[in-house]
Design brief:
CATH topology: Rossmann fold
Shape: globular
Distance between the termini: 39 Å
Strand content: 15-25%
Bound molecules: nicotinamide-adenine-dinucleotide
Number of helices: 9
Number of domains: 1
Order of helices and strands: EHEHEHEHEHHEHHHE
Structural class: alpha/beta
CATH class: Alpha Beta
Length: 247
């Protein structure tokens, strides 16, 4: 049984991904800064007959990540599938972004993936096999209003994915990213309720070739594919799961 670690596994797309990978037969380390949310998802996996272990950690804090990964390893075995899903959004006009908010967005959305990947990597190198799936955003591909810091971090994820794929391909490890479109998760709900978009969200999704908001499970299916044995010749790619939003 392979072991996956899903960051931000307590809610939204991380939750859907944790449940999906468990259904596919993987043991799942559910990591989240919200320990209760991670616990809830791990419990649901175990109740459904799967294997899971919850850990609380902030992905931007190396010491917390090291402790969490050690706990996942000792409970579920070496981690050979990593889903760098955890992220935060922030909305501000460029001139209004301060250094604190800039650092927070970059530290969680970009540095966090660097820290978690570096911590987990020895397991994949030892196995000579691994799958890393990083979460970018369609905002990195199209630009997004009042999200300069967020899209800069998510663009960094795409570049990091490509460069890491070059290093790790010869070692049996693939590195890909998912660029979700507009997906109905707690993050998206907060943005909708906070009127963060320039036009009503129904107007945004109506312009997509598939004119609706996406479901977390639809993104989880793409992650599951990248994580699978069959995807072994696919690396350095960014897959948009976005209803065609970038067309
Ligand atoms: N929802 C969308 O429309 C959308 C679109 C494009 C990209 N994304 C990206 O997809 C990923 C998942 O988004 P979502 O909508 O499911 O988000 P969400 O806010 O609904 O869930 C994110 C989870 O990550 C956890 N988390 C946040 N910061 C963390 C940290 N520092 N350490 C550990 N865990 C942390 C949260 O507690 C939460 O459980 C994010 O990287 C997000 O930027 C989302």
């Amino acid at each position: 049984m392979r072991t996956a670690l899903v960051t931000g596994g307590g809610a939204g797309m991380g939750e859907a991904t944790s449940l999906r990978l468990a259904r596919d037969g993987l043991a799942v380390g559910v990591l989240d800064i919200d320990g209760a949310a991670a616990d809830g998802v791990a419990r649901r996996i175990v109740a459904a007959g799967g294997k899971a272990f919850a850990v609380k950690a902030d992905i931007s804090d190396r010491a917390q990540v090291e402790t969490a990964v050690t706990a996942v390893r000792s409970n579920l075995g070496p981690v050979t599938v990593l889903v760098n899903n955890a992220g935060i959004d922030r909305f501000a006009a460029f001139a209004e972004i301060d250094d604190e908010e800039w650092d927070q967005v970059i530290n969680v959305n970009l540095k966090g993936a660097y820290i978690v990947t570096q911590t987990v990597l020895p397991d994949m190198l030892a196995a000579g096999w691994g799958r890393i799936v990083n979460f970018s955003s369609f905002g990195a591909q199209t630009g997004a209003q009042h999200m300069v810091h967020y899209t800069a971090a998510k663009g960094g994820i795409i570049a990091m994915t490509r460069s890491l794929a070059i290093e790790l391909g010869p070692k049996g490890i693939t590195v890909n990213s998912i660029a979700p479109g507009f997906i109905l998760t707690p993050m998206a709900r907060r943005a909708i309720e906070g009127n963060k978009f320039p036009v009503p969200h129904e107007q945004i999704t109506a312009s997509f070739p598939i004119p609706r908001i996406g479901k977390p499970e639809e993104v989880a299916a793409a992650v599951a594919f990248f994580a699978s044995e069959e995807a072994g010749y696919i690396t350095a790619q960014t897959l948009g799961v976005n209803g065609g939003a970038t067309v």
